[in-house]
Amino acid sequence: xxxxxxxxxxxxxxxxxxxxxxxxxxxxxxxxxxxxxxxxxxxxxxxxxxxxxxxxxxxxxxxxxxxxxxxxxxxxxxxxxxxxxxxxxxxxxxxxxxxxxxxxxxxxxxxxxxxxxxxxxxxxxxxxxxxxxxxxxxxxxxxxxxxxxxxxxxxxxxxxxxxxxxxxxxxxxxxxxxxxxxxxxxxxxxxxxxxxxxxxxxxxx
Length: 205
Ligand SMILES: N[C@@H](CCC(=O)N[C@@H](CS)C(=O)NCC(=O)O)C(=O)O
Fold this sequence. Notes:
four-stranded mixed sheet; single chain; 4 strands; 6% strand; binds glutathione; Glutaredoxin; 2 domains; alpha+beta
């Protein structure tokens, strides 16, 4: 197996954080995202969506979509459990991961790309303003839920931490401190600072 990615992009970062928390070592092939390598015919043959990350399997086939890759690896390597140990725990973790991706990462990424896009996309001030308007709603929900938790879903790291951490880190490309959006979110700040000290949070290049 190997993983095609670009380590600074949020979905690849989510997967890298997951692998480090699991203690799984899979080699990386860095794709030049700013240089457009993900849109070449060679890369599109691996993933017709032209995005990262992509898991290349030993039989030469490919699997895209970061969450599908994580779920596949989680089934191959159930310990330590990063989604949960019971049906309800897994459902609760997946709910939080969805809030982190669809609620936070998608908006933070749109904010970055409409202000200081690392891919050179043109600024869209109205989009950036709309994202700043929308972010506090979901951040308030997450902030209230993690009030007495060390990790997003409870006492141990899960895929929800990996996604939320990747979102917070990507936002920094546009100098956006996600925990400081709107009125600010102290529990998310405490979580982000603590998670950022974990070995899995250090980007290995
Ligand atoms: N839903 C996909 C999103 C993948 C995605 O959009 N990846 C970004 C990097 S974070 C990318 O490759 N963007 C380049 C593009 O779409 O042109 C996933 O979770 O893997």
